[in-house]
Amino acid sequence: MTEAILLVGGQGTRLRPVTVNTPKPMVPAAGVPFLAHQIARAAAAGVTHIVMATCYLAEVFEPYFGDGSDFGVHLEYVVEDEPLGTGGAIRNAAQRLTGGPDEPVLVFNGDILTGLDIAGLVESHRAADADVSLHLVRVEDPRAFGLVPTDSENRVLAFTEKPQTPEEIVTDQINAGCYVFRRSVIDAIPEGRPVSVERETFPGLLASGAKLYGKTEDTYWLDLGKPESFVQASADLVRGVVASPAVPGPRGEALVLPGAEVADGAKLSGGTVVGAGARIESGAVVRGSIVLDGATLGADTDVTASLIGARAVVGPRTVLDGAVIGDGALVGADNELRTGVRVWCEAELPPAALRFSSDR
Ligand code: GDD
Ligand code: MG
Q: How large is the angle between the packed helices 227-239 and 34-44, nearest 10 degrees?
C-alpha cells in the first residue's frame, strides 16, 4: 500500500482563479474539478490512502470527493488554521498517515498536471534506499521554479527555490512538484510553525548529508499557475495527450457533457469542453476552450484557448482568444477580446465595445 499527501492550499490557491468564482482546485478541467485528475491518477498508480492538506474549509472539497471511495482511495482532509507552508503542511498531514518510519510517502503539489510514472518513482526510491526522491523536469526558463542540479548518479547537489541571480541558474532541471519521502524524514520536520519544504527542508537535508535523488523523466508536465495553462491542461486531457481516468467521456476533439446544447452548425475542436446546460449556437467555432455550466456562446462567435465562466453569455460574432470570462459575465456582440484579457464575474460589456484589430 502507498500513502500520499496532496498539497492544496497556500496563498496562491486561496485566490480565485482571476475571475471564475470557484476555488481554483475545484475549477473543472475536462469536465471535473482539476483535483479529480490528480486523485484518479494516484489511485491508478496504486495509492490507497490520500491526505489532502489544505487551508481551505474542507466544505469546498468534501461534497465532491467525500471519503474518496468513488476514486477507490481512502481520502482524508486536514485543514490548517493558518497556511503552514509546503513543509508545515506535509508535517501536519503526516498525523493521519498509518505507515511505519521507513515507508515511502508520496507528496504532490495540487497545481500540477503530469504524466509521471508515479509507481516508477516509488520503485526507484525504494531501490536507492533514498530519504527523498524528486521528480524533475527540464524547462526553458527555470526562474519561477526550484532548481535541482544532480550528479551523474542522480544524487541531488543543491536546491535553489526561485533563483534571484544569473549565477544561481546552474541548471534547467527543476522540481516538478512530486516527491517520495521516507516517512521518518517527514516526522523530523518541525511542527506547529510555517516551513517551506523548498527553502528550508530540502537545503537542510542536503547539508546534513541525507540521500536525495532526482528522477528526470521526460513526460507530460504542466504547471497550472496561469489560467492559460489551465485551459491547455483541460484540452490536453480531453484529447488524451495526458491520461486521466477521471475524464467523463471518450477522448477526442470535444467533450460535450450531458445537458449541453450544441447547434448543428457549430464546430468544436482542440479538446473543447462544453459543460452541463451550456449552449453553443449555430456558426460558433470553438477551439481548445472550456465552456462552463450554463454558459452561452452566441451565433458565429469565434473562440480559441479561452475559459468561459458558468452562466456567462457571449454575444454573436464576438472573438475570444486567450480570454477568461468570469462567471455570469455578459459580453455583448461584436467584441474582440484577446491574449490575457479577464472579464470579471457578473461584469457587462456592451456590444462592439472592444477590439484589437484596426478599424474596418
Ligand atoms: N496546505 C498547504 N498549506 N498547501 C500549500 C501551502 C500551505 O501553506 N503553501 C503552498 N501550498 C501548496 C500549493 O497549493 C501548491 O499545490 C503547492 O503547495 C506548491 O505551492 P505553490 O505556491 O504553487 O508554489 P510554486 O508554484 O511557486 O512552486 C512550487 O512548485 C514548482 C513546480 O510547479 C515549488 O515546489 C517549486 O520548487 C516547483 O518547481
Ligand atoms: Mg504552483
A: 50
Choosing from 223, 239, 262, the residue where a domain stops is 223
Tell me the pLDDT band of 198, cut-offs 50, 70 and 90: very high
- Render pLDDT for 274-293 as a digit per residue (tens, 0 to 9): 999 999 999 999 999 999 99
Nearest to 265 by CA among 278, 290, 279, 284: 284
Is any ligand 1 atom within 6 A of the Cβ of residue 314? no
* Burial class of 128 by CB neighbour count within 10 A (0 to 12, 13 to 18, 19+): middle
In angstroms, the Cα distances linking 245 to 165, 248, 293 are 41, 8, 21
Question: Is the CB of 110 inside a 6 Å radius of any atom of ligand 1?
Answer: yes
Residue type for position 13: T
Instruction: Name the residue at shortest CA distance from atom 22 of ligand 1.
Output: 12
Q: Which domain holds residue 209?
A: 2-223
Is the CB of 86 inside a 6 Å radius of any atom of ligand 1?
A: yes
Q: Identify the bridge partners of residue 279 per DSSP, sorted by sequence position.
A: 261, 296
CA distances from 290 to 48, 194, 285, 293, 303 (A): 31, 36, 13, 10, 10
Q: Please give the grid coordinates belonging to residue 216.
A: 528526470
Percent of the chain with pLDDT over 90: 87
- pTM for the model: 0.95
Q: Are 333 and 353 in contact (CB under 8 A)?
A: no
Give 49-78 pLDDT, tens digit per residue: 999 999 877 778 998 999 999 999 999 999
Write out the residues surrounding ion ligand 2, Cβ under 5 A: 111, 225
Residue 77 sits in the same domain as residue 14: yes
Q: What is the CATH number of the domain that holds 29?
A: 3.90.550.10
Residues 195 and 319 in one domain: no
* In the chain, alpha helices (H): 10-14, 34-44, 62-65, 85-93, 118-128, 183-187, 202-207, 227-239
